[in-house]
Amino acid sequence: MAVGADRSPDAAGSPLAKRLNYLFTTMHPPGAPYTNAHVAEEISGSDEYGGVSLTEQYLSMLRNGKRTNPSPDVLRALAKFFAVPVGYLLGDLSPSQAERVEEEVRFLVAMRDKRVRSIALRSVGLPPEVQDSLTTIISQFRRQMNLPPEPPEPPEPPEPPEPGPDGAGEADGSGEPDGGATDGRR
Fold first, then answer.
1. What average pLDDT does the structure give for the chain?
2. pLDDT tens per residue across span 100-147
């Protein structure tokens, strides 16, 4: 397990915690968000992530801001798991680069919907003017249905959970109220 910095007064709002929580909230398979246990197990159980050993409890501390300085190997493994540049987790990207990463995340989330994928794939190969016409038609339908011209931004990730009485996050250290153990989520 990597050694992190002690929690500072504003650590719960740390850029790393916010970005990790955003990824957990948005980047997951259809059904339910990943749990800390699932991500830690996937990363620790696969050589694909560079032999990093990550525990559910440490991941919870990163997400709730108790630890803010993970090792570069942990950051690389998390970035690879969520398919984002490590600079996004580090906060090393310019605002426009970070926005581009988040735009790609929103695109991937939208592509989870089978119907959205079908519409997008059917437009492949059509001339640009036909694709523009389709965009106009979709915009007209959105107006008729009183929807905003563009799909809404995904909601801000929830604030990290407050540490439990033992200071390790929620009761099981997963950072989730029920630990995700009883509802079958990943």
1. 78
2. 998 888 888 788 778 888 888 899 999 999 999 998 998 899 899 998
> What's the CA angle centered on 180, arms 59 and 16, to 5 degrees?
25
Please choose, from the candidates 174, 178, 171, the residue with its C-alpha nearest in 3D space to the C-alpha of residue 41.
174
Dihedral, CA of residue 116, residue 118, residue 119 and residue 123, to nearest 10:
140
Q: Can you tell me the distance from the alpha carbon of 24 to that of 122, in angstroms, rounded to the nearest whole number?
A: 30
Q: Which amino acid is at 141?
A: F
Angle between helices 36-44 and 56-63 (to 10 degrees): 120
Between the CA atoms of 82, 87, 90 and 91, what dihedral angle is there, to the nearest 10 degrees? -110
pLDDT band for position 183 (cuts 50, 70, 90)? very low
